[in-house]
Amino acid sequence: MATTTARAGDGPILQVGATGHLGGLILGELMSRGKKVRALVRTGTDTSKLPTSVEVVRGDLLDPASLNAAAEGVSTIVTSAIGYSQRKPGDSLRTDVEGNRNLIEAASRARVPRFVLLSILACDQAREVPHFWAKKEAEDLLAQRGVPFVSLRPGAFLYAPEGPYGQMIRQGLEHGQVFAMTPEGVRITYIAPSEVARAVAMAVDEPRAIGQKIDLGSDRALSGPEYAALIAKVLGRPVSAASAAGGRGGDQDMMAMFRFFQTGKYVADTRRQAELFGPVPKVEDGARQMLTGLGLLPSK
Q1: Of the given ranges (44-58, 158-172, 229-243), which has the lowest mean pLDDT?
Q2: In whole angstroms, what separates CA 147 from the centre of its chain?
Q3: Is residue 1 domain-resident?
């Protein structure tokens, strides 16, 4: 058991995943609100782009012993870390399952006053999608351990230029196509990463969010053809929808996710989002951000 306990509002925020693209957006939102941040960073990860005011602690979600000191004395833990996307060599679903479990156990031992988990929309309805279900299990464990938590459940990201998804979108649009994840009549929720980051930062201080599982999305869900029509409208040129339902190179997890999208369950109820975090963003604005980041629209 930890010998000291932070009170809500005291101590730094322990951020897990700060060196990723979304994590960087979250870090920026936290610092713009005057928060002190302690970043948990794996050995070998480049920290040169982190602001000098950020306290860097070396550790790994798969090394439970490294998490005890990292969690000591913090006011909040914020995590956007994932392994299923295999962003770095050696990443795997273990991070999402064992890693989250280790972090939650460390938070419980340290009696951390708040834990903000970046979860996934409708994860509790998708047992057949491994990385979705891992988030549901993390939510369950937070409740079982009595850790005060906020679970934010965003829809599909309107991807930034970094990483394979951004490259895939750019390459598709060079040929006048976008990858549609659902057919006509089946809609899913999209959201810009910047809006997710803003909600995460606000959840750190919002007292009404404690114990909540909050959907995050844009003003309306879109079918694949509607998504293509939106991109065409924002770009000002024709764009057609190409099916992306085959998954990524035969990845079974991704294929299961695409099958789940076809159920029509991946649609956010944004009423609680609006109540706690302000007006729900327009999906056009998120698409414009994405296309600007991809270099397909001029920056203002």
Answers
A1: 158-172
A2: 20
A3: no
